[in-house]
Specification:
The structure holds two protein chains of two kinds. Chain A is an alpha+beta fold. Chain A has a single domain, classed as Bactericidal permeability-increasing protein, domain 1 (Super Roll), CATH 3.15.10. Helices cover about 20% and strands about 40% of the residues of chain A. Chain A contains three helices and eleven strands; from the N terminus they run E-H-E-E-E-E-E-E-E-H-E-H-E-E. In chain A, the strands form two sheets. In chain A, strands 2, 3, 4, 5, 6, 7, 8 and 9 form an eight-stranded mixed β-sheet that branches. Chain A has a three-stranded antiparallel β-sheet with strand order 1-11-10. In chain A, strand 10 and strand 11 form a beta hairpin. The longest helix of chain A has 20 residues. Chain B is α+β, with helices and mostly antiparallel strands. Helices cover about 25% and strands about 50% of the residues of chain B. Chain B is built from four helices and 16 strands. In chain B, the strands form five sheets. In chain B, strands 2, 3, 4, 5, 10, 11 and 12 form a seven-stranded antiparallel β-sheet that branches. A three-stranded antiparallel β-sheet of chain B has the order 1-16-15. The longest helix of chain B has 20 residues. Classes of the chains: A alpha+beta, B alpha+beta. Chains A and B meet through strand 1, helix 1, helix 3 and strand 11 of A and strand 1, helix 1, strand 12, strand 13 and strand 14 of B. Strand 1 of chain A pairs antiparallel with strand 1 of chain B.
Chain lengths: ~220, ~260
């Protein structure tokens, strides 16, 4: 079977290539992994993103917090191993593994000296998500692939309701992180040609595949 | 071990790619000299390539048929007219007042008349090209390189060039002083000095210079591959390193030119 099939051009990037690009992306732009409100993060920079504290009546300045991810690792279908139940990696999907550290600034009430303090309380959670790719085609050779998280699982959390809360929280935050990640077409067709996208992106055989014509 | 990225095109797309590579090559220029029969010939030539039909043939051959070589040259022929030199001998006549003698009169002709002949035409070639991958100065390059110089059919072009040279020589000779009565002799001697074989040989040597080693770049890329551009102030560019490149014609249900890149 030919690579191009019924089309004139084919381009693919395999699982290792995707992870190399993700590693390069988050190494160059760690601000997309590290989010925090003051005092954890005091200003936007190339390494951190400043977010607002959670407002809550009676908590002066709001509840400060930080969320830090490790660089996600992608596994394209078929899976490299068994995923924790009930997650299943179906054809056309990918799994994303990362570790998230959630930290809150725990405010200690004012003591006799009249001064309060905030000390960080943190937990690290292993996160596994199922996602699918989406293609955005702009013009020949111009476009990109993004990933959208469909389902998140944090293993070993009880009770189930707490897990559901954290799953939802992390699905939202992970999608926000991934929305900044774009795999431009030119890292897939390596500028060998300017692809006119006709089919894809699809995931099969541990790679993301595109088909089309060239200009 | 699998390849990180694969970009493949079929024969139809390969033709599109090839024609783009021909345009990108642009016009090549060369200068040189040679002989045209007994005369010297200097030339400056340019050539460009267009068209042709590429067929992908595994393993690793791109056969291109009817590739048009458009070439033009300024041929400069140096002509020595000394063969026309002559002297009128002294003639003495007796008269009642004495003997009167004419001086010896010698007429010499220029030894270095330069005749410039502009000439443009094209020739089609068909040849097999191979695939070459190299990393040079931090840039990956994939070339398709002609394997051998094909037979060049230059007969028609040589006839046209011969005619053009003859016409140019006649015009040049008209400007030579005292040549009037000898014009037809000079033209005959000069054009007899070389024939179609010499012109074909000269054209062949020139066109061969352009065709020999003919190389089309079908892919070049910096080894440091910019995936995403910077967006200041907090978003640096993203780069990956291209560690290996391979290119080949692969045969399956249809033949394809496949570029494999590791990052």
């Amino acid at each position: 079977m030919s690579l191009t099939g019924t089309h004139h051009a084919f381009a693919s990037i395999d699982e290792h290539g995707v992870n190399v690009v993700l590693h390069a992306f988050f190494t160059a732009r760690p601000r997309y992994l590290h989010y925090g409100s003051a005092p954890f993060v005091t200003a936007n920079s190339t390494t951190e993103t400043l977010i607002s504290p959670i407002a809550f009546p009676g908590v002066a300045g709001g509840i400060s917090y930080a969320i830090d991810f490790t660089i996600p690792v992608v596994d394209l279908y078929p899976p490299n191993g068994t995923l924790p139940a009930p997650l299943v990696l179906d054809p056309g999907k990918l799994s994303i593994s990362t570790t998230v550290a959630i930290t809150i600034g725990c405010a200690v009430p004012k003591g006799n000296d009249g001064r309060g303090s905030v000390h960080p309380v943190s937990t690290k959670l292993r996160v596994i998500a199922i996602a699918h790719p989406s293609g955005v085609y702009v013009s020949p050779g111009v476009g990109h692939i993004t990933f959208h998280v469909d389902e998140v699982l944090i293993p070993d959390i009880e009770p189930v309701t707490l897990r559901a809360v954290l799953d939802c929280l992390l699905e939202m935050t992970l999608n926000a992180v991934l929305s900044s990640v774009q795999l431009p077409f030119n890292i897939i067709d390596v500028d060998f040609f300017k692809i006119i996208l006709e089919e894809g992106p699809t995931i099969a055989d541990d790679q993301i595949e595109l088909w089309g014509d060239i200009s | 071990m699998t390849t990180d990225t694969i970009a493949a095109i079929d024969q139809t797309a390969a033709n599109t790619l090839l024609h783009a590579a021909e345009s990108a090559l642009g016009a090549l220029t060369k200068t040189g000299g040679g002989s045209l029969g007994p005369f010297t010939a200097g030339w400056k030539a340019s050539a460009s390539f267009a068209g042709g039909t590429a067929a992908l043939e595994a393993p690793d051959t791109i056969a291109i048929d009817h590739l048009r070589v458009n070439y033009s040259l300024n041929l400069n022929v140096g002509i020595d007219l000394s063969f026309l030199d002559f002297c009128l001998p002294q003639v003495c006549i007796w008269t009642p007042w004495g003997t009167l003698c004419t001086p010896t009169i010698c007429v010499t002709f220029p030894t270095a008349i330069s005749v410039t002949v502009p000439f443009s035409t094209s020739v089609e070639i068909s040849a097999n090209f191979g695939i070459a991958v190299k990393l040079t100065g931090g840039t990956w390059i994939v070339d398709v390189v002609i394997q051998a110089v094909p037979t060049l059919d230059l007969g028609a072009a040589a006839t046209l060039l011969l005619t053009a040279v003859g016409a140019a020589v006649s015009v040049a000779l008209l400007a030579v002083p005292f040549i009037g009565p000898l014009l037809s002799i000079a033209a005959a001697v000069i054009t007899a000095g070389f024939g179609i074989a010499e012109v074909t040989g000269l054209l062949g040597s020139i066109v061969t210079l352009f065709v020999s080693g003919l190389t089309f770049k079908v892919w070049t890329h910096a080894q440091t591959f910019q995936v995403l551009a910077a967006a200041p102030p907090f978003t640096p560019a993203v780069h990956v390193l291209v560690t290996n490149v391979a290119a080949a014609v692969q045969a399956s249900t249809k033949n394809e030119l496949v570029l494999s890149v590791d990052i």
